[in-house]
Design the sequence.
């Protein structure tokens, strides 16, 4: 029984090695497999000023995407969710900047959160 188990495990290992060496041999690699997600801000949008401020304050400086518009992709469809109001999103973004990011910049320096 030990001999059969030894041959089976050797066969499985050799098969795995053979498939590992030949499975990706002719793939052409590119820079990325993900589509370009760069969204340009719409100057005609009612939230353009706030979106521009968020981009300059959070995305450009800390590489943090402050999402305040409801996206149903990451939500649980078993619950009824209500998006935040525009004014609440502005208040929260300003509070997070002053109470979190500016405090860390003053205490430990600007490169700590980058």
Sequence:
């Amino acid at each position: 029984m030990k001999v059969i188990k030894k041959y089976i495990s050797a066969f499985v290992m050799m098969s795995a090695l053979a498939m590992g060496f030949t499975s990706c041999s002719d793939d052409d690699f590119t820079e990325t497999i993900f589509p370009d997600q760069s969204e340009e801000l719409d100057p005609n949008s009612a939230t353009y000023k706030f979106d521009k401020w968020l981009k300059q304050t959070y995305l450009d400086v800390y590489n943090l995407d402050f999402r305040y518009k409801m996206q149903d992709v990451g939500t649980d469809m078993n619950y009824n969710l209500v998006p935040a109001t525009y004014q609440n999103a502005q208040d929260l973004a300003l509070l997070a900047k002053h109470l979190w990011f500016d405090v860390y910049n003053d205490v430990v320096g600007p490169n700590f959160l980058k």
